[in-house]
Specification:
Layout (H helix, E strand, L loop, with lengths): L7 E8 L3 H11 L9 E2 L7 E10 L3 H8 L6 E11 L3 E6 L4 H16 L13 E5 L12 E6 L2 E6 L3 E7 L2
Antiparallel strand pairs: 1-3, 1-8, 2-6, 4-5, 4-7, 5-6, 8-9
Length: 170
């Protein structure tokens, strides 16, 4: 390998936690009982995906950013619960998202479609992934309640880790 980045970038739009929220999520994640072989998500990768965009030619990244860049409404994410989805995804799932968050997710989807990008047809299921390969994981007895004050949206590249390319709306 020559170390050059691939011709395309795997992109997604996310709510990226502020340092205090990230620390709270990580501390709660660390209190789970993980089965052998669980792949716990690193602190710096904790986030809530709004839209997975997928592979985009690198010369189109600026156009994607321009298409989705917008003010971010102010809202908070609070109560939630632990769950493990099929295939061993351990998650924190908000009990509800404020209407402003749902409207933002919808508007971003519309902007992606208008830019000629595919948007998943599946219903939006907001969550923060805590671990993969975690079938049988046991969460702490107490639920995690956050005071996540959302101020912006992140455009993120997934390639050998996550790299925030842009934050906007804040």
């Amino acid at each position: 390998m020559n170390g050059a980045p691939p011709a395309t970038a795997r992109l997604f739009l996310a709510l990226w936690p502020d340092p205090a929220t990230r620390q709270t999520l990580a501390a709660w994640r660390d209190r789970w009982a993980w089965p052998a072989g669980a792949a716990v998500v690193a602190d710096e990768r904790l986030h809530l995906t709004l839209h997975f965009i997928g592979p985009v030619a690198r010369d189109r990244i600026a156009a994607v950013q321009a298409a989705v860049e917008r003010p971010c409404p102010r809202f908070a994410i609070g109560g939630g619960h632990a769950t493990v989805w099929p295939k061993g995804l351990a998650l924190w799932v908000p009990d509800a998202l404020p209407p402003a968050a749902l409207a933002l997710q919808g508007a971003l989807g519309d902007a992606l479609r208008a830019a000629g990008l595919a948007v998943e047809d599946r219903p939006f299921r907001p969550h923060v992934t805590l671990a993969r390969k975690a079938a049988g994981a046991l969460p702490p007895a107490d639920a995690l309640v956050l005071d996540w004050r959302v101020r912006d949206i992140a455009l993120v590249e997934s390639h050998q880790g996550y790299r925030v390319l842009a934050r906007f709306g804040g």
